[in-house]
């Protein structure tokens, strides 16, 4: 289980998160929604060693990982797909996947790349194309593929559907379900497309101004007054 305990964090002296209690169960999808600037990305950055932890703890599988540097968090099996889906535009699809898995032995790397291709046939089809020529949706899939190459047990996905055409939003969310059901991964999904993301969630969080306003059943969240106000304009 991935868990934060009374987490206060931010960037340098800036405080962004306040007493955040968050947990993601193994093999389940936890969705974090909330308005822009709520601290969703900062939560993921705090887990992966990219933010400043002021106080509190982060645990992964019972291990205290508070403040570990990014490469050590990654080695424990936590893979991060950042908000901008960092792919190398000048490298081919396959080169991107190989760069992502550079720490793996060659035979292992080949297996992982094949696994990504079986999950995302479009990436296999475009394996020799430069990533910069892919559509937005294909690039998001490549970014997820790059995280998947690293043999994670947990995937942190930041806004992987934002700005995508509806057809791609649906496709990407289907892949997220596959990460859970076929690969048995733990998924933390941070999303602006709250309604669609909540449909695939096992547990939901509403984060507002750096504080957890709701934790629990995703369908219940739809009826939460603060959620309605934020997302449906009902007050
Ligand atoms: N690298 C950074 N350095 C300083 N402040 C940051 C940085 N990243 C985000 N912030 C600030 O932290 C707050 C929360 O941002 P963020 O976690 O990105 O929110 P969200 O992902 O929910 O939109 C915002 O006020 C933002 O300006
Ligand atoms: Mg963000």
Please tell me about this protein's structure.
- By secondary structure, the chain is α/β, with parallel strands linked by helices.
- The chain has one domain (2-86, 153-232): 3-Layer(aba) Sandwich (Rossmann fold), CATH 3.40.50.
- Helices cover 38% and strands 27% of the residues.
- The chain contains ten helices and ten strands.
- It has helices spanning 40-47, 70-75, 93-100, 106-119, 121-125, 136-149, 166-181, 194-199, 218-222, 225-232; strands spanning 2-11, 14-24, 29-33, 52-60, 63-64, 78-81, 154-158, 186-190, 203-208, 211-216.
- The strands form two sheets. A six-stranded mixed β-sheet has the order 6-7-8-3-9-10, sandwiched between helices.
- Strand 1 (2-11) and strand 2 form a beta hairpin.
- Helix 3 runs parallel beside helix 6 and helix 4 (106-119) runs antiparallel to helix 6.
- The radius of gyration is 17 Å and the shape is globular.
- The model has no long low-confidence stretch (mean pLDDT 94).
- The site of magnesium ion has 5 residues, from helix 1.
Name of the CATH homologous superfamily:
P-loop containing nucleotide triphosphate hydrolases
Category by helix and strand content: alpha/beta
Low-confidence regions: none
Counting DSSP E segments of at least 2 residues, the number of strands comes to 10
CATH architecture: 3-Layer(aba) Sandwich
Tally the structural domains.
Answer: 1
The total of helices stands at 10
**Percent strand:** 25-35%
CATH class reads Alpha Beta
Mean pLDDT score: 94
């Amino acid at each position: 289980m991935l868990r934060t305990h009374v987490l206060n964090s931010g960037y340098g002296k800036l405080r962004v998160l306040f007493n955040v209690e968050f947990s993601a169960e193994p093999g389940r999808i936890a969705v974090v929604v909330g308005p822009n600037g709520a601290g969703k990305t900062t939560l993921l950055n705090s887990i992966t060693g990219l933010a400043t932890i002021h106080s509190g703890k982060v645990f992964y599988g019972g291990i205290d990982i508070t403040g570990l540097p990014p490469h050590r968090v990654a080695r424990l099996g936590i893979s991060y797909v950042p908000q901008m889906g960092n792919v190398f535009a000048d490298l081919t699809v396959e080169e991107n996947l190989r760069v992502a898995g550079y720490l793996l032995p060659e035979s292992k790397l080949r297996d992982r790349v094949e696994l990504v291709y079986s999950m995302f046939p479009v990436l296999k089809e475009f394996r020799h194309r430069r990533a910069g020529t892919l559509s937005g949706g294909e690039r998001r899939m490549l970014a997820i593929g790059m995280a998947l190459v690293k043999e994670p047990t947990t995937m942190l996905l930041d806004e992987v559907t934002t700005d995508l055409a509806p057809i791609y939003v649906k496709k990407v969310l289907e892949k997220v379900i596959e990460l859970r059901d076929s690969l048995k991964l733990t998924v933390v999904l941070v999303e602006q497309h709250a309604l669609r993301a909540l449909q695939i969630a096992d547990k939901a969080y509403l984060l507002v101004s750096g504080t957890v306003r709701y934790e629990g059943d995703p369908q219940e969240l739809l009826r939460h007054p603060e959620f309605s106000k934020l997302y449906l304009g009902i007050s």
